[in-house]
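To: structure desk
From: M.T.
Subject: fold request, one chain
Message: Could you run this one when you get a chance? Sequence is below, nothing fancy, just the single chain.
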Amino acid sequence: MLTLPNRLLVLGLAMGFEEHELAPEIQAYLDESDLICGFPATLAALQAQQAEKAATHTFWPLKLPLEPCLAELEKKRAQGLRLVLVAGGDPLFYGLGSTLARFFPPEKLHILPAASALQLACARLALPVETLDVLSLHGRPGWQELDAALLRQKHLGLLLDREHSPAEVARHLREKGCQNYCLHICADLGRKSETITHCSVDEALSYQGQGQITLILECQERRARPHLGLEEHLLSEGNGYASSLTVRSTALALLAVQAEDVFWDIGSGSGAVALEAASLAPRGAVYAVEARQERADAIVRRAQKLGACNLNVLQGKAPDCLAALPAPSRIFVGGGLSGNNAQELLKSLCQRLRPGGRLVTSCVLLASFQASLEFCQSLRWPLRILQVQASEARPLANNLHFQAENPVFLLCTERLS
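Reply: Done. Structure tokens follow.
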């Protein structure tokens, strides 16, 4: 069977293989190998399954980082040893095969996959795999990847770890106002202990099941999504100052927000700029920083209503509250520039700004404009200054007249290095 002298054989073992007899082809490959390699948990399960043949097999555990192990395996293969690498499910689905594909060219590999846990979960639910967005939360801190996926409002397939349990995922969904999902908690797929639990977000909060879990989030209905040009009625609650549509659109254009940017909105007020930025940075993270608690609470409610899952609200006074935030690539300052510490605030913000990042300040008062101008000029970074003033038609005497908005100064500077 092992007639692949120039290739490394990678076997995907069916989920729950330790409780079932292996397919004849897989068993033949194992029987004829000189060395069976894999991660310790997979090898332990295989040794238990192959108890009667364990004495005739030589097992070699892989360790992290993988590169030294793979280099050693290549030496053994070059010496003529018949090697087999084993992995659960599909090795190329968030598994060992992905690393092997980076280490070896395709002509050096021969991969035989089995069904992944996600494929089994979709089969149990009769849910086409192509309708899902799939992501692994295994070993990934925080929730940024999930928040980005929630923005798309599709069915989601999640691979979990202990820090991202079904109950923790449900808690995060409720925090983001995402009650429009049904959770299918698929545990120990392919094993005798297999269970599938169907529940709402609130019901999943109390889930305490154990085992290897694949979580399917089925979107029950599409909600509102963050977008440019937010209507006034969406921004009126909470008595937070909302910059005009004209100012917001110009400021966001100057900032040139990209999909993966980390965006800070300092002195967020109504949260309008942060909410619109959330639509422009779907794979990034947006932070609305607001000193007044009632305004911060109102931004949270707006974010939940608009489905802005990648928007995080921080109540506190900048720059004191910013230390724990990730370094930004885009900063908008809409408030906090009218006091005596305006230049100190801008200095601390620019110290955190990533190379290539942009900062835009919005100034209504001349004193704020002067402080921003003096600071930006001292940086000797590229600087662009705009005065934005628009007029909007209003009813008057059975006709229309144009009512002028207050002029606003926008200063945009860019950190080159």
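Reply (cont.): The first helix runs from residue 24 to 31. Let me know if you need anything else for the meeting.
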